[in-house]
Amino acid sequence: MSDQTINNGVLKHAELSSKFTNVFLYQFAYDGKMGHYEGFIKNAGRVGHIEDMNYIWRRNTASVNNLDLSLFPENDKMVQKRMLRLYTNFAKYLNPTPKKDPLFENIEWTP
């Protein structure tokens, strides 16, 4: 379903945009408690569209409440720290890992 409704359009947009500027894409595949939209597709067994946003923004909506981080597993909190660092680094340096960082086990991104 995602390929047809979302991914194909995103990839086509990236292809067209790449003729004029650098384009960067990522795939978020972490299946954690913080990311789930419980009412959307029950027991889907996979990560849904924009679940990564729940690790970046604090929200309290009908489908997501991640205001109290103590309610989530340590792995979710680690993923949230990593996502925030990746996003802020990319916004600041155009590189999600501008230097070696223990938070990422010293992995550096090479485009």
From TrEMBL:
Signal peptide feature range: none
Domain annotation Carboxylesterase type B: ranges: 1-105
Entries under Gene3D superfamilies matching the protein: alpha/beta hydrolase
InterPro entries: AB_hydrolase_fold (IPR029058), CarbesteraseB (IPR002018)
Record bears the keyword Glycoprotein: yes
Pfam families noted in UniProt: COesterase
Keyword entries, A-Z: Glycoprotein
Name this protein carries in UniProt: Carboxylesterase type B domain-containing protein
Organism: Cryptolaemus montrouzieri
